[in-house]
Design a protein that fits this description.
By secondary structure, this protein is α/β, with parallel strands linked by helices. The protein is built from 13 helices and eight strands. Helices cover 39% and strands 17% of the residues. The chain has an eight-stranded mixed sheet with strand order 1-2-4-3-5-6-7-8, sandwiched between helices. The longest helix is centred in the C-terminal third of the chain and has 19 residues.
Amino acid sequence: MNKILKIYLNKFCTRYDKDGIIPYLSEDDFTGLIKENFTFKNSSGLIVSYFYYFYKNYKTDKTILFLHGIGPGHTAYLREINELCKNGYKVLTLDYIGCDKSEGDSIYSINEPTKDVIELLDYLNLKEEIIVIGHSLGGYTALNVINLREKIKKAVVISGFYSLKSGLRAITKLNLMLHPIIKYENNLLKDYSNIDNLAYLRNTDDKILFIHSLDDNIVSYKFSTGYIKRHVKNNNLSYLINDGKKHNPNYSMNAVSYMNKIFAEFNKKIKTKELKTFSDKKEYMKDKSPMEMTSQDEIVWEKIFNFI
């Protein structure tokens, strides 16, 4: 196997589960938030878990489809989901294949989430208006989904990228040596890996809001949202660009600062062997606040709510 492809598969196309160390929020952390659990079987024969979140008396004319990034499922985004729910929306979300509550040995492909979401939408056949919001890999997936599904007319893309190649470049900062990865993806899910989102963005009447931080250290602004802003002229596209938020432009500055401090210290203690065992790491994290770590920026959310 090509070395670059092997690194890609080991780093990105793996199984994502909670490690029992990093704290996550649940619906129980939000008084009155209701969660409903469901499953369906995708075309590969694997069970995909999907969920509805809402408060009583939610709006019935719109459903927000929220798409998570790389990692152990949608629960990393419960602060975002709760923001939407407390403003009266019902939120549909899922764990992609290879993530948390869904089956699969791995996520298989950067385009597997697009496949999972499209098949979920076809399975549910929702009649109300659907607005799709996604972060990182979920932002890329959201862009694919609004491109492929004519019924969906609005999307919010947070820290996302617009194509397989742009995503690889935005993450790796490389423009060469990507051919083995692209070939692998094309062979695996050709229908989804060849979506031309740039052509779609140039001509679409759909409304899309891009949110990104200039200092994003995971998905480079320059090679993703920045490229679209520079090269695609379409008044239906809007942008909220901030700085200092790294990969979480919808977080408050306090949250970003707190999270950076916690994980910098955590990684330093691992490197210096102060935290050697699972128990050591869990003990370190036990008093760290996931609520403080994920507090949201009200200005960003005001922009999102005005948009949707």
